[in-house]
Amino acid sequence: MSESYAGKINRKLLKKRRIIDAAAGREPADLVLKNAVYVNVFSNELCHGDIAVAEGLIVGMGSYSGRAQHDCAGKIVLPGFLDAHIHLESSLVSPQEFVRAVLPHGTTTVVADPHEIANVMGTDGIEYMLQATEGLPVDVRLMLPSCVPATPLDESGAILDYRSLDSFYDHPRVQGLAEMMNFVGIIAGDDQPVEKIVAAQAHHKKIDGHAPDLRGNDLNAYIAAGVYSDHECHDFQDALAKLERGQFIMIREGTAARNLEALAPLLCGKYAERCMFCTDDKHPSDLLEKGHIDYIVKEAIRLGADPITAVKVACHNAARYFLLNNRGAIAPGYLGDFVIIDNFEHFNIEKVFKKGELMVENGVVRDFPLPRVEPYLTERAHGTFHLQTLTPQDFEDHRPRGIIGMVSGEITTVDAGYSDRIDVEYDVLKIAVVERHRNTRHIGVGFLQGYGLKSGAVATSISHDSHNIIVVGASEAACAAAANRVAELNGGIVVWDQGEVKAELPLPIAGIMSGEPLEKVNEQLEAAKAAAHALGVSRGVDPFMTLSFMALPVIPSLRITTRGVFDVTSQSYV
Question: Helices 518-534 and 95-102 sit at what angle, rounded to 10 degrees?
Fold first, then answer.
């Protein structure tokens, strides 16, 4: 039987009275952090006093007693950190395992874009992420993916227009429309992307941007359309041009893109109010070795930012931007989300509280209840491969095909000419993308130079943004074998040579995530990297991350799609 409106009000009234009584000191709080030195994001200073929590909310600072007390003398208490833009799928683990990884680093809220899983599963992917993140001790808010597929050239698992997204805006954890990557379409006034912005605004939601190096009237048009932020600024002038026009700047420091050092001058009194931190993509080794938002705060301080400013950018600014008005500060009425550190110099996180509950102590995460995902969605997420067994002949094409020339240290490429055969001596390898969502039998083939593989093949179903199977090999037979193994695993990374698997990482959740702990996933991933390098992949190349971007036909110059090699600059197949 559902609760009546009067019953709901009465229940909340009792809770509110309890909060008021604890704040007034008439009854003990649930939790008190005694003798706390804490960051006040409103007065931009360190304050001192007890911090009291009742019913998960901060009820006051001053002198309090509580049922549970923690002495914080000699420590600094910070609000919980907030990641303003992340794709959870990039961690390669399930949402619950992601939470176990970032909670010890003080992250208590993330704003996630389920773009990757939506490109595989469509609206079922969005629903899966909503259910798989419900009630976790890190609040996961979603921005709805704006570009599924990222480009009409992609063959993804779904095509989502504004009607497909509309019902999700009513969900209490949906904050808005995620990064509008199709800035070309927005500037041109194309119906499909502009409709999505209009629909998001009709629901009074935020719209995030993605517009590297956009300038002048094109930038004006993009912002005028209703795009409120950008996380693609790689230099100060690019960021300043957007900030001057009213956009909020998400300073990104992730695995694939690192912009903090270039944008550190924004972390001053003149600009910091319009800035927040995000990671965008965080791979397993990066989470384990460096951390999460805490790493960005430490680096910002090292680069000269005032510690209180850095902390404020890490929590309060993003909370204000996303209208999450009860977090990002230590003040009455705010969530009891705390990070306790030793000092700003070493920035060692000793305890993390979520809604007044101690969730992490000395790096150890307490157990928490797991969300329930509907069996239909679980089954759907574990059955996203629909293709027939591949043969070496599927990868043969004796006509000349374009050679994608890799650029050392970059994900951009160059046009390296044509070839009609594999030539390992000159590092000319077969590259292919196999459509895996609808069994279309579409297989685009071409050649890759600069990867370094001498024998065997490397294949992965992490292939931005549509996540088809991408494979590179020294023979067509090895390409077929490696791609078939990826399909058998229901997704993953495979290194194949001499008729056998040399290393693999199964990713059975939509072909892009594992249900295993982060440490195990990282161990398998590093073993696969070592196996790929042992087969000749250049030491300066990440064998899988680099490969995954070769299929994204929005980055110059040449890319591989399910229809062949595509020249992004001329917008034509070669």
Answer: 100
